[in-house]
Amino acid sequence: MLRPRFLPFNPHMTPRDTMTEKPRRLGRGLEALIAGAGSSVPAAVPAGTAEAAASPLRSIPIGDIRPNPFQPRRDFRPEELTELENSIRASGLLQPVTVRAHATGGYELVAGERRFRAASRLGWSEIPAVVKTLDDREMLTLALIENLQRADLNPLDEALGFQRLIDEFTLTQQQVADAVGKDRSTVANLLRVLQLPDGIKRLVRDGVISLGHARALLAMPNERLMLDTAKLIVDRGLSVREAERIAQEARPTEDRPKAPRAADRGRDAHAAELRRLTEMLRRHLQTDVRLTIEGESKGEISIRFYSADDLHRLLESILGRPLDDA
After folding, report:
1. Residue 279 is among the residues annotated as catalytic for this protein
2. Confidence bin at 75 (pLDDT 50/70/90)
3. Catalytic one among 85, 113, 126, 158?
């Protein structure tokens, strides 16, 4: 029977380190901020034993785990799964999957579907899993957050996940934004993608056209023009700015925006630069960041984290050194 090679997750760990890895610490003073953050990850114990009842980390038969019914990601690239499979084969599983107990027996996958699929392809009979008690809304939210943090979730799947939170749990756009750590305007703009014709939505999902192109198409007066312009974008490799120009020219004259005044152009340029800097920080830190400017030279940067490990990772990224260093 093939059993998993599991070691507590540490992003700085190399295969050689796995034999002597010490419990991870958040650093002096930080453990007081997050309950239990300084404790080491317990060893996985077999499900169904007395130890398992008291342990959140268990070794669970892969056949007892069902797919996540709220999984926002529809497509998993074969090359990504192969790369992860090779990594697990070489270094073991560095982070467990997360599951919840199912009312009729067995478990449902909450987070870690790529790890689960890779382990299944390797022929593992069991996989280390953290068992959590979650309701459906928490399950969908966690699945969304994991995909947003760890991989590039395409805009269409992200929008579908947001729409499920709204439809199935009667949340407002603001509540969805708070749950996933984004601005309400970002959530609203993503939801508008769902209004596109199916053919264009497939182009967005496959990454053939960008979210910026999709927003430009949404400004067009009818579906036929949207489809024709989308084909033009693909065939000629048009930029977002060129797509916006075509969309503007397609609108009735009375609906076209008036030429902006100098002050408006300045505000637009300021907002565009703010968005650019915010996106730069988000990509570098791999989490949600909010940047606000007050007056001419003051402002605030807000960085969101979702766990003790996430805080540890962010602090090391910002400081440029391990937290344990003096």
Report:
1. no
2. low
3. 113
